[in-house]
Amino acid sequence: MKTNQNFKKLGLSLAISAICCSPAWAAFDDAGTDYRTDEQRSHVWNEALEPLELANSILCFTDQMRTTDFVNDGPYLVLADEERCFGSDDDSGGSGSSAPQYVEVIVDVTRESDLSPLVISAWMPEMGDDEHSQAIKFKALIAEGASESNPFGTFIFNFDFFNNIEDSNRRGGGELRTVDIENHIGFTLFESDQRGDHVSSQSASAVMTNDRSEGYALTAVQWGDFGHASALAFNDDHVLVQGADNYDSLGFQNGDNEGQCLSRTEFNDTVHRYDLYDAETGERVELNSGFSFRYDSDGNDVNDSHGHVGYWGIWTDDENALADGDEITKENFNNNSNPETFTVVRAPGKLIKKTVERLSLDDAAGIDFQYWSHEAQEAGYNNFLVQYRENGFYIVAGMSHGQDGEQITELTPTLIQLESFDSLYMHSEQLGGEVRYQSGDTHLSFYQEQVINGAGDVFANGALELHCFERCPIGTLEASDLQNYDGVNSPYEAIGDDAIVYSFGETGSNALTLVRDSNSEPVVLASSVSVSDMQSSSHQWGVASGMLVDAATAATLQNHWDVYDPEVVSTFYIWETGPNNWNQLSAVKDSDGNFISFDKPIQIRYTHSDAKDRSGDARDFDGQVFMLNYGGNGDFWGIPHQQESERHQPLFAIADGAAVDSDNNFVVKAREIEQQMATADGQCSSLTIQEPAAAVPTETQNSADIGTMPTITDAAKVIAGEIQISD
Fold first, then answer.
1. With DSSP H G I counted as helix, E B as strand and the rest as coil, what are the percentages for the chain, rounded to 5?
2. I want to staple 484 with a disulfide (CB 3.0 to 4.6 A). Which of 264, 470, 490, 547 is the partner?
3. How does DSSP classify residue 359?
């Protein structure tokens, strides 16, 4: 039974989607290469299909369990990437990306015989964020796999929601099942959930002929007193869609057949995941992204909890569960008698190495920059939006962040006045983070970044000696030092004629912590500084130093301002500290005291163009530069996004096979594609909307009655869909 194929077929969303063809193939696409054989997933999105996104998400999440690889092997542990399947589609990423957030899933897959259904039982003790956390029990009965005559197969999926995995009071749940109607295929869906007094639900019925040449669907989403319903009719070429607040208000109920006509053959592609490949061999680029481990969460000398450590730091079941000096045990996939142990190293800040990239001002036109200033704060904005125009940088809008997302208020363009040698510090998602412009230059600077975690040869010659010329921290910071952004009562020293010197080493009481030499104080928040102190200060996101250069570079500077010249200083460091995990460093040492190194994401300076755009039209992004990042396993970010309702959508897509770096070392291939149907006004006259042959369900017929969650002591067999151990 090819259950995975069943998942792939159902993910077609009413069979409307179509895999897009790739451009002309190059050598990297030779038969048998990873580039050629790696699967692309595609689904269609339309507001009318929104309830069916739940079906796609369930299938995506179930696919990570690799169920058909462990039939009748007993319960096993999966660490699943929840964001991949149930996220917001906000994969803009950037330098603030963090450790992966895995969800523990206990899975048991059984089958009595070759003629019996495949039964999948899964327990998820905690899913969702802290505000919307829930436990889920999931049961799937798959009686028939996908085939040419029955591309959806035959199955019933049930899922029940609980406040916690031991709770016996079901607070909601859902059911996804295929229909059993002669000469027809399709499925129905119902899901409801109650959080306090708030009740939400989703429902759908989609039924079509066996060859999927025509069909009908009804979908609805309800949030308390608010909702939206849709009716669809479709054939091989087109889809006719009606919308209303509820089923009874849909036009076809009263004989009205008007609606929006969409094409089933023309699509606009949005890509949410890419992989990176060697441009000569077609081999997928793999990174050492870290390893999974166990730890003792309650001090009883039993490793009862799970975590993952990698380049971005440490993830654990419970946030901040591990302290400096705690011991972790690497997951023992080979079942040997001497599993590796490591020691956790935590520092109250992190040192970031930055390598300068330059962009001419002519190429900066069209890029949005975010600029913080006292004036922005006084005007009620979080930041100003800045753009470069012919004679300088202009404030063009105010940016505010609230419960309804990002709000942009257009302003009369105002030139930012800069004196000689003044520096303008901004932020650009497009360029990967911090951007700096010095008055009089014909270019601006942005950076590739690397977190210094003790691994490698950074301390080959002992502790680093670092010199500071601007925004130099005074040492340990009290609440009174956080009142102002700079000047008096700020974290920074007034600059004199000489540089301020710091050290950064890997041993001692201040290991991996910046220390000011003149007073021997670590540059950290004092223990008396609370989170509320930070939130009410001018440094609510943390404190960062100015540019720090090593002693050898400092010796080459003729003047202090030479530090801003990328011809003189091409590499420098920034120290960051604060109360948040992303302000701090988490690393591990092996039993010999050596820091463990993990691959940093590959950073690529990419220039977009019509030829590299998936649609062939790069629009305003033609010729623009972006700092892209690849963290392995589809984790590719740096393409700008915009928010559409509650969804975040990338503003362009890169064509399959496009070279993304200037040396043509790497090409990309889309792995997860969302397609939106193009409008086809006046071409749906042959379609008539009607009720689908299967009624829309108003409740679930079954439940996920799978009993108590088994206790698993073995290592995770699957992580983010990748098998870690073979039979």
1. 10, 40, 50
2. 490
3. E
What does DSSP say about strands 305-310 and 154-162: parallel, antiparallel, or unpaired? unpaired
Q: Report the SS3 class of residue 513.
A: coil
The pair of three-digit structure tokens given for residue 595, joined into one six-digit string: 């820091």
Question: Which one, of 346, 397, 448, lies nearest residue 94 by Cα?
Answer: 448
- Residue 606 phi/psi, 5° resolution? -120, 135
459 pLDDT exceeds 80?
A: yes
Work out whether the CA dihedral 525, 531, 537, 539 comes out positive or negative: positive
| Ramachandran bin of 591, using left for φ above 0, alpha for ψ from -120 to 50, beta for the remaining angles | alpha
Q: What's the token pair of residue 486?
A: 């700079």
Higher pLDDT, 253 or 486: 253
Residue type present at position 721: G
What does the alpha-carbon distance between residue 665 and residue 38 come to, in Å, rounded to a whole number? 19
CA-based radius of gyration for the chain: 28
Cα separation, 133 vs 129, in Å, equals 5
Which residues fall within 8 angstroms of residue 126, CB to CB, at 6 or more apart? 103, 104, 133, 134, 135, 165
Would you state the pLDDT for residue 458?
A: 81
Strands 41-44, 666-679: pairing kind = parallel
SS (H, E, C) 412-479: EEEECCCCCCCEEEEEECCCCEEEEEECCCCEEEEEEEEEECCCCCCCCCCCEEEEECCCCECCCECH
**CA–CA distance, 198 with 616 (Å, rounded to integer):** 46
Q: State pLDDT tens for residues 119-174.
A: 999 999 988 765 567 899 999 999 987 777 777 789 999 999 998 898 888 889 99
